[in-house]
Amino acid sequence: MQTVRLSGTPAAPGLASGPVFRLRSFERSARRTGTADEERGALADALAFAQQALEALSGRNAGDEAATILAFQLALLQDEEITRPSYAHIAAGEPAHNAWRKVLDPLIEDYEAAEDHYFRGRASDLRDLRDRVLEALLGGGEQAIPPGAIVLADDLAPSRFLAADWSGGGLVLEKGGTTGHVAILARSRGVPMLVGVDLSRIGTCDEALLDGHEGSLVLAPDASLRQEFERRRATWAQQAREEAQHLDVEARMANGECVQVLINVARPEELSGIDPQHVDGIGLVRTEFLFRGREQLPDEEEQYRVYRYIVQWAAGRPVTIRTLDAGGDKPIPGLTREHESNPFLGVRGVRLSLRRPDVLIVQLRALARAAVHGDLKVMVPMVTTPHELAQCRALLEQAVQQLLDAGVAAQLPPIGMMVEVPAAALSLDAFDADFYSIGSNDLLQYLTAVSRDEAELTALSVPGPAFWRILRGMTQHGRDVKCEVSLCGDLASDVRHVPELLRCGLRTLSVAPGALAAVKTAVSRSA
Amino acid sequence: MTTNATGSVRIEHEVGLHARPSVKLTQLAKTFQSKIEFAASPDGPWVDAKSIVKVMGSKTPKGTMLHFRAEGEDAPEAVRALIELVERDFEPTS
User: Fold this and answer.
1) From B14, B20, B52, residue closest to A79, measured CB to CB
2) Do the chains contact at B51 and A72, CB–CB below 8 Å?
3) What is the pLDDT of residues A389-437, one digit of tens each?
4) For residues B78 and A310, what is the distance between their CA atoms, to the nearest angstrom?
5) Domains in chain B, ordered, with CATH?
6) How far is Cα A362 from Cα A369, in angstroms, rounded to an integer?
7) Nearest alpha carbon to residue A437 among A416, A464, A462
8) Hey, which residues does A121 pair with through a beta bridge?
């Protein structure tokens, strides 16, 4: 095969080269079928194989959301309502894989057609299970992902991702997005990954080069491409090694001044790949993941457990949890307004929370309960006026009082604001906040009047003199009143901006987990 | 000796019988010899409490009164244990 160069969207950084492994699509696979007895045996083996694999996975993923999904799949696998009709189809002359499909497919369709969002979501668990057994039937060992391969697939289930040995390998998907579950896992485990790559016309080839920085995939590379790739990889590896040395030490500027480097977290699963010793805390926990893609909003108990898990992970380090920031580019069905003419300037963040105190109070109660377990802080997004923050503080105090009156352990956490609205950024002294955290993405968007998703105008939405001036004003205010001012937007994760952020007086940055080493390194090189 | 037992309990779990509660319920039901069923109404339709497909398929929401019935040697123990499970909101015994 001739060299082919494909491009895609980078979903996890890093470079990988290795043998190509194309995950088969089950529709196209053929399988030699035997007698009814042999087919019965084949299905029994495949079920046992799938069960073993799931049990091994549950052992490794105990305690989190993944454990529930795996337990559900295991229960399905052992359910006679599934196995009995499958064996009945085999007795009636169907080959094992058809028999299995005949039982699982209608069930999947039934879940897909469910009115309840939650049940529709479970269809993917059933598909995952169906494919796991089919794969065992279609030659088991062959479809196991070999270690260190560049895996090309239409899509990949999170459980398959977790089962594979990715050391040295990489992943290329035709479907999937950069914010999908597998992409998050790939980033937290350092597996280079691309999405949105058209794999329909590629032939067979042995070797591929994957660049998760620039988003390229080279199939059947020639010697010069390989050499060039190795050079890039060596540079990158050298840089990563140098940066990694900064991970477990405090970030200090050249003049010896300490800078706190914390991480932003969008899903608790991300934490499993991070050593708490490498961070000074969590500067932003986005709580939207708890509310998105489900029918009922999460109750106090569910929220409490998640917040407690995160706070305990941090082991005494500060954890800033942001109250629900719905609206704008983060709609939540049943909660956010539909058909707003300009959602980014509409009922979003605290504006929505104060209109739905029933939802906010549940979250504040859960936060106050979790505050007992560590250094938890509550951050309110999209604050425009002092009154909004005062209302949130009053609700939080009331929630704590009610919990204590009812004999529930709770504590009043510090409450601060995310500074995103220019009007607020220019008048910090008017707000009664325990801390300020700058949300640079929205602040820049509002300051420059450039939409965050307008690809054509990205050159206008870079921080300029106005942004730096406002930033200096805010850090000055923080020093005057001895109140922490941090920055948790994407700007802090971009090492090109780190020196200027420090020059403007910031000493607390909260960054994407993947940028931690690079940012700590950039800090140490800043004057 | 075969005995029969019945009992009922209101399900207060916020989401009703979703994956986690359903898995707990079937796991517990399977530890008993008896045939165990439940229904949202005293006259059925009855659902096999040992089948995750059936339990999840019932799509039982919060606030439903769950009626259990069991038949077999350990029927009374089974019904008692399942009611306790629902009462403690599907948490493990501490």
Assistant:
1) B52
2) no
3) 999 999 999 999 999 999 999 999 999 999 999 999 999 999 999 999 9
4) 37
5) 3-87 (3.30.1340.10)
6) 11
7) A416
8) none
For residue A416, what are the β-bridge partners? A379
Strand partners for A210: A16, A217
Minimum Cα–Cα distance from B47: chain A residue: A81
Question: Which amino acid type is present at position B10?
Answer: R
With CA atoms as reference, report the closest residue to B69 among B87, B88, B49, B90: B49
Q: What is the ipTM of this complex?
A: 0.84
Residue B38 pLDDT more than 70?
Answer: yes
DSSP string over A170-218: EEEESS--TTSHHHHHHHHHT--EEES---TT----SEEEEETTTTEEE
DSSP output for A325-377: --BTTB--TTTSPSS-SSGGGSS-THHHHHH-HHHHHHHHHHHHHHGGGS-EE
Q: Are A375 and A281 in contact (CB under 8 A)?
A: yes
Give me the residues paired with residue A153 across strands: A173
Structure tokens at A84: 């009995």
What is the nearest CA distance from A145 to chain B, expressed in angstroms? 28
Largest Cα separation within chain B, whole Å, is 38
CA distance A237 to A243: 10
Residues A71, B56: C-beta atoms closer than 8 Å = no
Check: pTM over 0.80? Answer yes or no. no
Which chain B residue is nearest to residue A80, measuring alpha carbons? B51
Cβ–Cβ under 8 Å, residues A137 and A100: yes
